[in-house]
Amino acid sequence: MAQTDNKRFFENLSGAGKAIAVLTSGGDAQGMNAAVRAVVRMGIYVGAKVYFVHEGYQGMVDGGDNIKEATWESVSSMLQMGGTVIGSARCKDFRMHEGRLKAAHNLVQRGITNLCVIGGDGSLTGANLFREEWSGLLAELVQQGLIDEEASQKYSALHIVGMVGSIDNDFCVTQRKCYLALVSALACGADWVLIPEMPPEDGWEEKMCQKLSAKRAGMKRLNIIIVAEGAIDRNNQPITSEHVKNVTYLQIQHLYLIKYNNNNTNVFVCTCRSFENNLKTYKLLAHRKPESELPQSNFNVAVLNVGAPAAGMNAAVRSAVRVGISEGHKMFAVSDGFEGFYKGQIKEIKWADVGGWTGQGGSLLGTKRTLPAKHIDKIAEQMRKYNINALLVIGGFEAFLGIMELLAARGTYEELCVPMVMVPATVSNNVPGSDLSIGADTALNAITVTCDRIKQSASGTKHRVFIIETMGGYCGYLASVGGLAAGADAAYIFEEPFDIRDLQSNVEHLTEKMKTSIQRGLNSNENYTTDFIYQLYSEEGKGVFDCRKNVLGHMQQGGAPSPFDRNFGTKIAAKAMQWISKKLNESYRKGRVFANTEDSACLLGMRRRALVFQPVVQLRDETDFVHRIPKEQWWLKLRPLMKILAKYKTSYDISDSGQLEHVVLNRPKQSEAMAAI
Fold first, then answer.
1. Burial class (CB in 10 A: 0-12, 13-18, 19+), 117
2. Within 13 Å of residue 420, how many CA atoms lie on the same side as its CB?
3. CA 286 to chain centre
4. What is the mean pLDDT of residues 502-523?
5. Which residue has the higher pLDDT, 184 or 551?
6. pLDDT in the model for residue 192
7. 477-486 vs 440-456: helix axis angle to the nearest 10?
8. CA distances (Å), 175 to each of 119, 121, 178, 597, in order?
9. Which of 15, 58, 178, 550 yields a CA-CA distance of 20 to 30 A from 613?
10. What positions does the domain Phosphofructokinase occupy (predicted)?
11. Strand 420-424 and strand 390-395: pairing?
12. Catalytic residue among 62, 121, 168, 565
């Protein structure tokens, strides 16, 4: 695609005369069906023919009915299905040159020169080999008389796009690092993790059991040990889950058979590789150093939750407390946000106090929306009383406002001249300075699962429309991204004004649909309420479809945090505490901490997959304070995708799309590369 100006729009691309094939290969992975659906509908949208290749590479080799043209309707109702509906199979034939020759013939017969492969490392390695051999394969087909020279020239270029679909998360370009074992250990607060990249020292069994025994002595009845597939010891001997189970059972049974009559030690086996940052974070949080080995900082750090509860807050608090203690600080927990702060609801929190917090929902510290401005004098008094040298505030938009109010009072209250950092945590995902907030992923999961169940409730009904109201205030993140995940037909949000003509157009569009959902953000429009939209759809859809209304409410805030929110909260809070330690050391002068510079009060946010510290005062101009949202929101660029996938004609700017990257690897032996196909 030649770029003639600064803007490129998807609808201007032409797929006329082109054919695309999509296949899934290797082991099943959740989300494959969503990817297949998007490939099919986006391809058809630009006028291309799109084909399913059933049963992965085996179907491409066998041809026949395994390669079928897809229609728009053929990918309906597949978003919520697990596995892959077009099938996946290991293929010995494709590992052989003769098998790849047959596959090439089958593609050329249908004019397919664009291939989308969804799979793991082996699947994508096989696709790359197929691309490299393509011209030679066509030459052989001409030589054998299976195709003519004209077809060889017409289909001379094979274009392949690989999408990584694997539970192992082990593809080299997307970070070939530990995902399952190590990140699972972080997410569940495991007591011990064994991975191939870091073989344990000799005598690890005894050390591990000593730790488990100490936990049992502290009345912990459950231990979790995670064993990665391929784990080895220093002598290169495999460590199996069975070995770990036997070791722990014998030693713990010997020590505690009077006290306990069961062995609640769960050993999990995971397939994965490792990466360094997760390993460091896990070791920091899971293994407490003896008091004699801890640095002595003499600093006191307070942590508090502010705003509405968000799943993952507790994981963040646990991480902050343990990292702070490891850094030598004395950690203080403030109950009920700024309200608890000015009331003196402050107490020291120890390492063991936050055990088991990672998987718990809500806020165990307690959280309220109270802002500090009216109580600054009392808050300053409490900071003086407890000698608080730094603040970590975990919360939503109220936390952001609260930090700004504390900054504004620094000129009056010297006690507030300390390092402050905010970690965004809100289901609304409306905090400026961060693309993502703790809790937003859990809320999206709740919305998506609920939408799936709602649609399944109408499995015996032909035409039904569901009007679903989400949370988020004036921020349309949940409605938009939830709608995209659930396959919604439309999502009404405050950021994109709509009127009665838009509503009427949507109603007319729905006459072709079987079952669909309409998402509406909580404060998307003060006049076009959820009830109004429901009544409009019910009236206008008479004789065509019936309508149901669902208000999801606070179920989006409740429940255990998702694995992503557990890990996100853990890692972002750990990074925040390390920043606090650095700032405390930089601002300690003449026996006290004094930090009054612009960069001494920051928000730690995720910007384009990187965690970035940003001075809070610099975020003021990026904020719509009236509607409590950032002025620019990255996810708005995704909204045209939902319309395209729902068969609307719309404009989609792809100027800022990701760049394709050609990767050159040190290739393993061909037999090894193809073994996973």
1. buried
2. 26
3. 23
4. 82
5. 551
6. 84
7. 50
8. 15, 11, 9, 37
9. 178
10. 20-175, 179-245, 300-580
11. parallel
12. 168
